[in-house]
Amino acid sequence: MEKNIISEHIFLFPFTWKYSSEKNSYLFLQHVQIQNREFERLKNWDINDVAIEEDKDYNEFVYFYKPVRAALYTFPKSALIVRNYSYKAIGENNYFIIGVEGKEYLLSICDIHLKIYKTGIGVLSLNICNTSYQNTEDIRNINSFSKCIYPPLLPIEKAKEELFPDYIKMRINEDQKIEEYFEKDYRTEPITITSLVMNILGEPFICKESKLKSGSIFIEPILGNQMFCLCLFKNTEIVKGIHSGSIDYNFVEKFMMINKKVLFHEEDPMGSHAGSIYYLKSESNIYGISRFSLICISNQMLKSKLFDQLVSLVIMQRATLLSLSTEIARVSTLPKYDLVPAIESIYEIYIQFINQLYFKEVTEDIQGSHIYDKLSKQLKIEEELKQLNFEIDEVHEYATLIEQSQSKFKVQILTIIGAALVIPTFATGFFGMNIFKEEIVRWWLDKNVGLWMNGYVFLPILSMIALCTWNRRRTRANIIKNMMLLALIFTSIMIIITFGCGL
Q1: Do residues 235 and 8 lie in contact, with contact meaning Cβ atoms separated by under 8 Å?
Q2: What is the pTM (predicted TM-score) of this model?
Q3: CA atoms of 193 and 237, how far apart (whole Å)
Q4: I need a surface site. Which of 42, 196, 278, 428 has the fewest CB within 10 A?
């Protein structure tokens, strides 16, 4: 069947996930929650640990550097960084139908995979194979499925003018049939992930907070309404035309952009500058790289899995950076007593991300390394990381100030108490332990105990508290506190003047 494949289309949908539990919701706990046994019992998914059973498995495994493999594969009895899943028993009689601009395309479903990362990011990848459609306009229309998370604008007819699909139909196995006509009222449920994607994910994934319950996994899109589209297209004529100059890059750009609006591009065979689209050229391959797509036009079908892994790694990094930035903005509004532990939880996963999931280079293969570098630049990984570093530093400094303030307050309280007890300690030492003389055994019955406590304990303590905490801030709480202290001190002094101090 592989010899008849004209194009492969891999759609990668990144999302944030959070496991619903009774623990504090302000903490970032995904790196702990990923070890939950619920992730071993996902309804539609089989666990996919690393296994080298065929030559292609070996070739893919050794393609990446050793540290990168830990971010791509799940190794049993090792630190859990990512969970890998494959869809349960995809049958041969499955199909994928997409309707665009009055045309219908019948395609086959090759693979469906899912990655769940400890950074709170998931990546769903749907691999579609085309064995019937050679025209570049058809390739572009098939790629339009990447816009199907939710409509980019309303009314829906307006979205369809920019290649938003009319409908999607899928059959996965005999009992899983899914149809999506995009007929729901998106005004009442904006930014709701299409039921097509949610049906593929299955239980316990949900995208509506109103349905949140214990044990569910709440997900949200992180890169807008669009999936990342990886398209491998076998077309010898286009490759020859690009090399000879008879076909320019604008021809490729028409299905590269997945809409009818053509943006500018920069031809970049070796350079390092950034444009809206990079075009890389080798002897047998033409690559187009944008923020939402990687197109490879080749003389022969390439191994899609290598590109899939490269793209999923960069997508995960981009999504993680955006997610952590969003988390920092969320926790910065928390009360001070919740802020410090929340920041510590985010800082912990940030350090783990830097050490385990962020890579400058992933392979020794020159072509793969170049594509990874260009993808990283198009998705602005370096820029987002610098911005996140700044946000982390700022919020960490704020947390440090809060901790110092709390520590200073505790020291101040101890200082006040110690200072207040100096006077009664001096009085007790000065008068000796025979203050109450023969009544010492039952001192609490002596009528002068209250007077003595007022004169030598309460009044000194109140005086020291007033001295150490007095300020002129005209807040309601501060005014009430000052008035209460003055009233108590005045009452204590009046008791001493009227009844004495008990000696």
Answers
A1: no
A2: 0.78
A3: 38
A4: 428
Which of 360, 201, 229 lies closest to 304, judged by CA? 229
- Name the strand (E) or helix (H) holding 265: none
Residue 502: partners with Cβ closer than 8 Å, 6 or more residues away: 448, 449, 450, 451, 452, 453, 454, 455
The separation between the first and the last C-alpha atoms of the chain, rounded to the nearest angstrom, is: 106
Amino acid at 372: Y
3-state secondary structure of 128: strand
Which pair of structure tokens corresponds to residue 125?
């990848």
Question: H or E stretch including 86?
Answer: strand 82-87
Q: Are 326 and 220 in contact (CB under 8 A)?
A: no
**CA 246 to chain CA centroid, nearest Å:** 45
Residue 367: partners with Cβ closer than 8 Å, 6 or more residues away: 282, 285
CB 361 within 8 A of CB 371: no
Q: How far apart are CA 51 and CA 82, in angstroms?
A: 15
Count of Cβ atoms closer than 10 Å to residue 497 Cβ: 8
pLDDT at 1: 42
Q: Which amino acid is at 255?
A: F
Identify the sign of the CA torsion 254, 255, 259, 265: negative
Dist. CA 128–CA 111, nearest whole Å: 7
